[in-house]
Amino acid sequence: MTILLFPGQGAQKIGMARDLADAFPAARAALDAIDAALDTPLTPVMWDGPDDGLTLTHNAQPAILAHSVAVLAAVGDRLGNVVAAAGHSLGEYSAWVAAGALDSTEAARLVRRRGALMYEAGQARPGAMAAVLGLDTMQVEAACIEVSVGTPDLVVAANLNAPDQTVISGDPAAVKRAGEACKARGAKRVLPLNVSGAFHSPLMDPAVAGLRDALARATFAAPNFPVTANATAQAVSSADEAARLLATQLTAPVRWVESMRALDATHPGARWIEVGPGSVLGGLLKRIIPGTTCTSLGTAADVTAFLDAA
């Protein structure tokens, strides 16, 4: 049995998925279909940049989804008995595509709309994010509360990525204060992130209505296997519930540690596969569940080796 993981924003890089398109006709066809479905083709910026164009939220998010979709097309039905999936933030959309609940072209349009709405919310109320390393999540949450009391600024724990890695999100001044408070509590490092807004925090609330409308117009089918939702860390098998939680996800924390532990408890001994650019989620998995291994399928070489071994 197999569990699939799908990466989120930050995994993009110039040249992404080009080798897949060159090596696998099915991957190229999948990318071509997404290009045709969007108002502006995506592969030119994925393959040739510029870098500041690819990092724009409305490009980075569909680009990462497109890369994951290209890998899925290349491996076809060789993934075996897939029993569950999860995706980090925008990766949850990729997971629903893998589950057969959402068409890849519709998912790409949704994610591009999501990225645009998030960017607009970030422009209306500028926010910041920072990764806190080497400090327990409960301590990070306490620091956020500590620096917010009595001020109009807001900062929250937004991405609960590993027991000792939490991303904070909110008003820039509050994020800075929370970072300093985390260092005082023993954090090894606090790294500012290059993002256009305070994602997975209440500052994204202006984006929710627009995304909810877009999700309501999309066609969701019953999935072939459940997807674990970021907002609840629970397995979801209902199309209506999927759409509801994808809207909720914008302002809710990504409960990645809880999600991975729940999947491991439900499917002990499963094979884990990360589908898409990079291997960040596999690295987090090893820190969440020591001793676990995760196969990364992101490049043509990865896919070729996987198919040869299958």
Overview of the structural elements:
Helix 13 (280-288) links the parallel strand 9 and strand 10 (294-297). The mean pLDDT is 97. The radius of gyration is 18 Å and the shape is globular. The strands form 2 sheets. Strands 8-7-2-1-9-10 form a 6-stranded mixed sheet, sandwiched between helices. The protein has a 4-stranded antiparallel sheet with strand order 4-5-3-6. It contains 14 helices and 10 strands. The chain has helices at residues 18-23, 25-37, 43-48, 51-54, 57-75, 91-98, 104-124, 137-148, 172-184, 205-217, 239-248, 256-266, 280-288, 300-309, and strands at 2-6, 82-87, 128-133, 155-162, 165-170, 189-192, 227-228, 235-236, 271-275, 294-297. 50% of the residues lie in helices and 15% in strands. By secondary structure, it is an alpha/beta fold. The protein has 2 domains: 2-123 and 202-309, Malonyl-Coenzyme A Acyl Carrier Protein, domain 2, CATH 3.40.366.10; 127-192, 2-Layer Sandwich (Alpha-Beta Plaits), CATH 3.30.70.250.
| Gap between N and C termini | 13 Å
Integer average pLDDT: 97
| Strand arrangement, major sheet | 8-7-2-1-9-10
User: What's the count of strands?
Assistant: 10
Give the helix tally: 14
Number of separate domains = 2
| Apparent shape | globular
Corresponding CATH architecture of the largest domain: 3-Layer(aba) Sandwich
How is the biggest beta sheet arranged?
6 strands, mixed
CATH uppermost class of the largest domain: Alpha Beta
Unreliable segments (pLDDT under 50, ≥5 consecutive)?
Answer: none
CATH superfamily of the largest domain: Malonyl-Coenzyme A Acyl Carrier Protein, domain 2
N to C succession of SSEs: EHHHHHEHHEHEEHEHEEHHEHEH
Question: Which class do the helix and strand fractions yield?
Answer: alpha/beta
Helix content bin: 40-55%
What is the CATH third-level topology name of the largest domain? Malonyl-Coenzyme A Acyl Carrier Protein, domain 2
Strand content: 15-25%
Radius of gyration: 18 Å
